[in-house]
Amino acid sequence: MKVLITGASSGIGRDMARILQQQNYEIIAVARDEEKLKELQQELGKKVKIVAMDLGIEENCKRLYEQNKDIDILINNAGFGACGAFTKTNLEKEVKMIHTNIQAVHILTKLYLKDMVEKDQGKILNVASIAGFMPGPLMATYYATKAYVVRLSEAIKEELNKKKSKVQISILCPGPVKTNFNNVADVEFAVKSLTSEYVAKYAIQQFFKGKFYIVPGFKIKLAKLGAKMSPTNLVSKISYHMQKRKVSSPH
């Protein structure tokens, strides 16, 4: 069986590739960093096909699909963040973030889902974040992109249920994870980060059990519950104070 994983050169995506390769899945590993992909391929062996590609570009998403149609599982993991007041963060970086975190997930989910529904089999795991359940002052664009992934996936799940489809869609919603995300986003998390190995292992286990919401860590489960039960303005105020504490440089 074949699994296509985006953002596979590091962090959660890389560790998912390692776990699934050990379970004898054929891996199609996609990321921008060709050197890191080659290192992964050298580590895991011939069952890993690497594709060096920037999924922030719309045509690349379509080309990836056209060249790799025959897959059983899609894991949309590619994404990044940025931290700071909305009026001060870099516009070009945010537009690139929207293209990667939203547009790429939307295109790949749509193209592969149509094939899976036609065959009535297949699985999709969209990597969102606990951020997708709340406003995120000082990381406004990132939180908004993850909210898109959450709501899109929730809606697709209901459509699949109504069709009585055997196709599965799930969302992974972690909190802070020890990955290169922190460096790219220019942020230091106040809450203790989980390791990418732990999150990847937990995610794969829950995904294959058919879970829809996959939320690693007890504190993050509580945060999801709190965000659901509390007024939005209160959640926004709490989120702001948490973000302000973790910004690693003045904004």
Description:
The chain starts with a strand and ends in a 5-residue tail after the last helix. The strands form two sheets. Strands 3-2-1-4-5-6-9 form a seven-stranded parallel beta sheet, with helices on both faces. By secondary structure, the protein is of the alpha/beta class. Helix 3 runs parallel beside helix 4. It has one domain: NAD(P)-binding Rossmann-like Domain (Rossmann fold, 3-Layer(aba) Sandwich). It is globular and about 50 Å long. It is built from nine helices and nine strands.
The structural class is alpha/beta
* CATH class label: Alpha Beta
Annotation, overall tally of beta strands: 9
Instruction: Report the order of strands and helices.
Output: EHEHEHEHEHEEHEHEHH
Q: Which geometry do the CA atoms define? A: globular
Please estimate the helix content. Answer: 40-55%
Walk across the major sheet and give the strand order.
3-2-1-4-5-6-9
